[in-house]
Design brief:
Blueprint lengths: L1 H16 L28 E10 L2 E3 L2 E8 L2 E7 L2 E4 L7 E3 L2 E7 L19 E11 L2 E10 L8 E9 L1
Antiparallel strand pairs: 1-2, 1-3, 1-10, 2-5, 3-4, 4-7, 5-6, 8-9, 9-10
Length: 164
């Protein structure tokens, strides 16, 4: 129990402690397991996005660190964070893998081309919303419902994103 409390406290307290002065545009998030925004964070900015994802099979604390290395390019460090397998009685726990990637923004504003992802044979109904407390602090929540046997069971996520 103390480990769960510690993971949750760290995931939500760190961004509040690190909030920076107000930038000139509103925060846009790519919070893991939620939604990808088309924009990058911009040169010189750092953005931490974290939360809790709960489903019947598992619980995790997905976290994404976005570092602006140029106006249209960002470095991304992502992990599933603290994991709990809820599908077996032992409730196996551990840490998720980490990944590093880049995001390149090729278009800005209107006139960009839409992107379509091949979802394969999965189908889901997802919905969610968010609230920006100020230009660099955003809270969101979402729910996902699998519509066929290849799609994960229902899940709920809540998260916090802060731009430094």
């Amino acid at each position: 129990m103390p480990n769960r409390v510690l993971c949750a406290a760290f995931a939500f307290a760190l961004p509040l402690c690190c909030a920076a002065s107000e930038p000139d545009r509103w925060i846009t998030t790519d919070r893991p397991d939620f939604v990808d925004a088309p924009e990058v964070v911009g040169k010189g900015h750092i953005q931490l996005e974290t939360g809790v994802l709960q489903s019947k099979e598992a619980r995790s604390t997905p976290t994404l660190l976005r570092i602006g290395v140029a106006d249209a390019l960002e470095l991304r460090l992502e992990t599933d964070g603290c994991l709990t397998d809820r599908s077996d009685l032992a409730r196996t726990r551990g840490w998720g893998d980490a990944a590093m990637s880049f995001k390149w923004q090729t278009h800005e504003g209107e006139g960009g081309s839409p992107r379509v992802r091949d979802g394969g044979s999965t189908a889901s109904f997802d919905f969610g919303g968010g609230y920006s407390f100020r230009r660099d602090l955003h809270l969101d929540a979402g729910a996902m419902l699998g519509l066929n046997h290849r799609t994960p069971a229902p899940a709920f996520t809540v998260g916090l994103s802060v731009r430094l």
